[in-house]
Amino acid sequence: MRLAPREAQAFLAFDHAAKREGGHIEPKVRELISLAVALTTQCGYCLDVHTRAAKRLGTTREELAEVALIAAAVRAGASLGHGLLALRLLMRHRLRQPDPVPQQAFLTTDLIAACARSYWASTTTRN
């Protein structure tokens, strides 16, 4: 804070605005979101701060377990999404070389993406 006071003050103002009470999202839900982000970014300091705040707001062990699994699923889903992007980029780079990749290769990643969308749509409609 002392080394960069203007920047620190700006950050703290932003942080307090994002965590304010009286918004559309109740404080406990805001804290669970913060905790999920801390789990995803793997920030030890953030985990300590947000776990303490979540406990103060009445978060149960079961709720924390669900938050941890949701965060893990989102992170894993992002890995899959980036994997699909990497496949598309690889094919795009190959197309610029003398032996182009057949059009079916693009269909493969599109099929994987469609299957993932279909799966998620089916799981959200069941709940």
Short synopsis of the structure:
The chain contains five helices and no strands.
Main features:
single chain, 127 residues, mainly alpha, 5 helices, 80% helix
Task: Explain the overall architecture.
- By secondary structure, the chain is mostly helical.
- It contains five helices and no strands.
- It has helices at 5-18, 27-41, 44-56, 61-95, 103-126.
- 9% of the residues are buried.
Q: Which helices and strands, and how do they pair?
A:
Layout: H1 5-18, H2 27-41, H3 44-56, H4 61-95, H5 103-126
Helix pairs in contact: 2-3, 2-4, 4-5
Which blocks of ≥5 consecutive residues have pLDDT under 50? Answer: none
How does the helix and strand content classify structurally? mainly alpha
Q: What gap, in angstroms, lies between the N and C termini?
A: 46 Å
Range of helix content: over 70%
- Shape verdict: extended
Radius of gyration: 21 Å
The ordered H/E elements are HHHHH
- Our estimate of the beta-strand percent is under 5%
Main beta-sheet strand count, sense and barrel state: none
Mean pLDDT: 84
What is the strand tally? 0
Counting DSSP H or I runs of 4 or more residues, the number of helices is: 5
